[in-house]
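Annex B. Sample input.
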Amino acid sequence: MYLLDRTAGRKDFGNGSIFLQATLGTVLGIGAGFVLFPAEASLIGVFLVALAQHRTVEALLDRNRDEIWGGAEGARGARGANFRLAISLLVFFLGVLVTYSAATLLVPEARLPDLFGRQLGDFDVVSITDVVFDDLGGILGNNVLVMLACFLFSLLYRHGGMLLVLAWNASVWGVIFPYIARTAPDRSAGAVVYFLKSFVSIFPHLLLEAVGYVLVAMAGVFLSKALQKYELGSPRFTQVAGAVGRLVALSALTLALAGVVEAYVAPTLIRFFF
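Annex B, continued. Sample output.
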C-alpha cells in the first residue's frame, strides 16, 4: 500500500501508472481477501481493490477540479478535463478487469469457487455458445438499473462509491468469461484461446457499458461535491449541474448503444468465432 501511495498524491501521473496501480492493487486485494477472510474472499477482495485506489482517484478528482476552475478555457477546458478524468477511470476499470481475468485463468481450477464465488453466483453456463442474451428491452432495462445504482452510490459515497461499483463490475466481467474458458467442454484449442475469442465477442458492448458507468459515476460525484460546496442557484452550482446533466445524458446514450451491440452484435460474433 505504501508503494502504491507514492504516486497517489501526484496530479500529473499518466494512465500507464494508473493501470499499473490498478493491477497491483487488484492482486493485493484478491490475495489479502483470500488470506484474511477466506469465507468471503470474493467480496472482501473487491472492497480492498476499491480501497487501494482511494487516494489515486482522489488525486484525479483534485486534478480535474484544478483544470476546470484554475484554467482559462471555459466550457471547452471543462469538457477536456472531464474527458481526461473519464479516460483515467476507464483505465482503472480495465486494469481491474484484466487482473481478475488473468487470476481466473492462472489459479488452480479447484480454488475458483473460493476466490470468486460471489462473482460466479449461481452461474451454470458451460459454454459461451450457451449464453442467452436478453432482448433489447430487457438489456436496456438492466442497464438503466445499473446506471441508477452507479449514480446513487457515487452521490452518497462519492469516489468511494464510484470505485466500489466500477471494481465490482470489472471483477464480475473479469471472472465470468475466463471461468467459462476454464470449464467449457468445447475448448479444444485451450483455455487461453477460448477466452480470447470469447472476450473479442463481448468486448465491444462491455467497453461501451464501462464508459457509460464511468460517466454516470462521475456525474454523481460532481453533484455530491457541488451540493456540499455551493449554494443552490449560484453560478458555480449551475455550471456543475449543467455538466452533471450532460454526463448523465451521454451515459444514457452510451448505454443504449451498448444495449444494441449486446443484443445484436455479441451473438453474431459468438456464432462467428464458435
